[in-house]
Amino acid sequence: MIFGFQTEFFQIELEEGLDDGPDFLSEEDRGLKAINVDLQSDAALQVDISDALSERDKVKFTVHTKSSLPNFKQNEFSVVRQHEEFIWLHDSFIENEDYAGYIIPPAPPRPDFDASREKLQKLGEGEGSMTKEEFTKMKQELEAEYLAIFKKTVAMHEVFLCRVAAHPILRKDLNFHVFLEYNQDLSVRGKNKKEKLEDFFKNMVKSADGVIVSGVKDVDDFFEHERTFLLEYHNRVKDASAKSDRMTRSHKSAADDYNRIGSSLYALGTQDSTDICKFFLKVSELFDKTRKIEARVSADEDLKLSDLLKYYLRESQAAKDLLYRRSRSLVDYENANKALDKARAKNKDVLQAETSQQLCCQKFEKISESAKQELIDFKTRRVAAFRKNLVELAELELKHAKGNLQLLQNCLAVLNGDT
Amino acid sequence: MVQNLQKLCSMMTEKIFLQIINSLRAEATEEVSLDSPEREPILSSEPSPAVTPVTPTTLIAPRIESKSLSAPVIFDRSREEIEEEANGDVFDIEIGVSDPEKVGDGMNAYMAYRVTTKTSLSMFSKSEFSVKRRFSDFLGLHSKLASKYLHVGYIVPPAPEKSIVGMTKVKVGKEDSSSTEFVEKRRAALERYLQRTVKHPTLLQDPDLRQFLESSELPRAVNTQALSGAGILRMVNKAADAVNKMTIKMNESDAWFEEKQQQFENLDQQLRKLHASVEALVCHRKELSANTAAFAKSAAMLGNSEDHTALSRALSQLAEVEEKIDQLHQEQAFADFYMFSELLSDYIRLIAAVKGVFDHRMKCWQKWEDAQITLLKKRETEAKMMVANKPDKIQQAKNEIREWEAKVQQGERDFEQISKTIRKEVGRFEKERVKDFKTVIIKYLESLVQTQQQLIKYWEAFLPEAKAIA
């Protein structure tokens, strides 16, 4: 996998594998359902992002598909897509009534390099005021940060596509196929101000409605339990995600301090006249190395913990949205029932009322059925993802702590040997 | 928890001091059997260092009873005598500052610290004793030592800094963590101050120091208050000094001094930079600790609401691990500060004292120079009087010439003396600095090792819990 960077200041081409990228889906889920193990569906449709290019203010993703389905003209093909096109696809799912009964995979967040770009700019401006080593060190640091954000955004876009490809119904969506195959620009522009305002009002109405609808007690125990559970879970995941973020950021700040301490010790070591200069140089080296490990710890915590929580924040919101849609259809059904009763009593427009009641009933039952399965799958996915990430987090923390310990002990052995 | 921190801190400083004592002991025996490094700086002040080996008889020399000394007499003791005593005595003295206790109420309240001395040196009447001292007593001690020794070239360790804000909080009676932290910081600083002072062989002989350590009643040092008459006088003098420094143009005949001054200037800058970075680290680690604690609570809540039993249990375990890690971060931040950061700030102030000593040398030179100029003038006057043939004025002029010749000689002797003293002092200081830094930094790295070992323990305990999620 090749990532290319092109910013105002640096042009970097790096080859990186996504092997340590975030992995919110368990292995089973990539093309497989945890319960219905269907090996064929794996070969039927495989999607991934094979390449990405970061330009001034947009990121271009190369979406690569391998499929044995007859719907596609070829068995293997690639197209270039931008973030807005992913959003268009997601929104088309949301707006499709047929998918009301499914958890729509949450849209990937917009790639945000602003903070990183600002830092790079400040570094460029301040080049004259620091030593060459300091400048090189900081440049490397910022490049690593940029790369990390880049890898994350690629992974999140990929996860979205994989979730769609794994879903037995959504993978057949026509828009999805167009997205994968059509090798011209989809001409999907971002929403203009008017549309954004419309969206805003729609959301407001939806949340107000959600409050009304959620007041309706559910007859079905399963859904009642799920609703209470999801509400609480969503809030707590939100809190945990925010706190985890702050924790990883503090960790990174401390690691950056090690960097500066290492530089100062180096300066002391090169300028001192006594025999302590060797000592300082060794300790400076230690701080440089230990800093790299601490930075990795922070990055891994970010990947395995913060990102996991952030993703399940979005997924739990999508699950909540599903429950809302079901409740909405239940209310509609009940209203249709009432309307039918009224029509029968008045003996007016009975047929119309009957048809509408039938439709509402069908819709509600269809949603309920698929929703139940979706929520069960959600739980399975969640448990598997947490397990995988927590295990990997613990393993990585151990690996880094052992590495750190080794470094420190080696350094101490040398220092104690010298004195 | 604060008491634990206090105990931890005093344990650590004791450990550091013990290690220093042990290495000093080892060195002391080495020193006497080979060329004494203490002697070398004196010898090397001559252009051709002639190293004369020290015979072991100095070890057998009896400990000299120095009780007969009074303050001014100390300068007349020959350097050799001082050396003998220093080499004969192993620096067997241990100082601890502990048990801060609030005495009194309101704005007149103060903290009293227990100063405990453990020693086998014969100049003290007992081998273990303790007294109660307050902060201004320490300042008073420093002020006395500085007035006696600084201007002849001895590097007198500076006392800890005053803090009006910190003390006011304590006086007012705020029993919160920041005032306990302040008291602990001050206690540790006072301990380090005393330990450094007694390590100095010349200062150890000083009767004021002995009185400070031994006598149960000490006259209050009022002149140490910032806004007292003496305090204001000090400030005026400092300003005058600063002006003088700028106007003295010294002909440096000895490149060693110029080199050393430049070195100390550089060292000062570097240490300040390093200190700033370490302070930032302390701050961020404290932040990390707070954020980790917050996350731990949040993870526990999440675990509670998770309805899959095994995952719920694992999340609760994660919360526990993070809580323990928060404790680790706090302890590490503590070590960061008390070992690393305070070491640096101590040395930044010590270097200021070193610079002060160099400045005194300049003033000494100026005095000598002025005496020479005045002598010249007096000689001119004599010549004029001879031409004008005024016999009584001539006699007066001759007297004055004799007077100023003596002053010039004294000035030259003083200048040479202070130069020699400074050379020796700087040599001693550099050795101490190297030892200090090495010891403390190694101790600090060991604290980092401990943190990593604990981390490994915690995560190893958590891993099977995570794997157990079914």
TrEMBL record, chain A:
Matches recorded under Pfam families: PX, Vps5
GO CC entries: endosome
Domain PX intervals: 39-186
The species this protein was found in: Equus caballus
Function: Involved in several stages of intracellular trafficking.
Keywords annotated in UniProt: Protein transport, Transport
Disulfide bond as UniProt keyword: no
Transport among keywords: yes
Superkingdom to which the source organism belongs: Eukaryota
Family indicated by similarity: Belongs to the sorting nexin family.
Name the UniProt record assigns to this protein: Sorting nexin
PANTHER family linked to this entry: SORTING NEXIN FAMILY MEMBER, SORTING NEXIN-6
From TrEMBL, chain B:
Topological relation to the membrane, as annotated: Peripheral membrane protein
A single BP term in Gene Ontology: protein transport
Protein's cellular compartments: Cell projection, Lamellipodium; Early endosome membrane
Low complexity bias locations: 44-55
Domain of life: Eukaryota
Residues in coiled coil: 387-421
Entry-linked CDD domains: PX_SNX2 (cd07282)
Keywords: Acetylation, Cell projection, Coiled coil, Endosome, Lipid-binding, Membrane, Phosphoprotein, Protein transport, Transport
An annotated GO cellular component: retromer complex
General function of this protein: Involved in several stages of intracellular trafficking. Interacts with membranes containing phosphatidylinositol 3-phosphate (PtdIns(3P)) or phosphatidylinositol 3,5-bisphosphate (PtdIns(3,5)P2). Acts in part as component of the retromer membrane-deforming SNX-BAR subcomplex. The SNX-BAR retromer mediates retrograde transport of cargo proteins from endosomes to the trans-Golgi network (TGN) and is involved in endosome-to-plasma membrane transport for cargo protein recycling.
UniProt name for this protein: Sorting nexin-2
Organism field: Equus caballus
Native organism taxonomy: Eukaryota, Metazoa, Chordata, Craniata, Vertebrata
